[in-house]
């Protein structure tokens, strides 16, 4: 027999609302997103590639849960080495060619 927990039901709705808001606000930039209420605190778990994504997540939480206690357990992960800008061979030997190329960026 399924027994509903009357205390857990409102918490589950809040958790789902916060999770949806974070996913929309961050454009899915928080991976493995999980929101739960533990000991009266809203806890957000996940992974992100930037601190900006974490800031967006916090802003989303505050829209739904403006004055409650929040713990962000969002870890920054590395995406690998930074991309190198490659200059096409036709521009690599001439200063004028580099100026022309950067003028169009």
Question: What does the model show?
Answer:
The chain is of the alpha+beta class. The chain has a domain at 8-76: Helix Hairpins (Orthogonal Bundle), CATH 1.10.287.4300. 39% of the residues lie in helices and 23% in strands. It is built from three helices and three strands; from the N terminus they run H-E-E-H-E-H. The protein has helices spanning 8-25, 51-64, 95-103, and strands at 30-38, 41-48, 70-76. The protein has a three-stranded mixed sheet with strand order 1-2-3, with helices on one face. A hairpin with a 2-residue loop joins strand 1 and strand 2. Helix 1 packs across helix 2. The longest helix has 18 residues, at 8-25. It is elongated. The relative contact order is 0.14.
In short:
By secondary structure, the chain is α+β, with helices and mostly antiparallel strands. It has a domain at 8-76: Helix Hairpins (Orthogonal Bundle), CATH 1.10.287. It has three helices and three strands, in the order αββαβα.
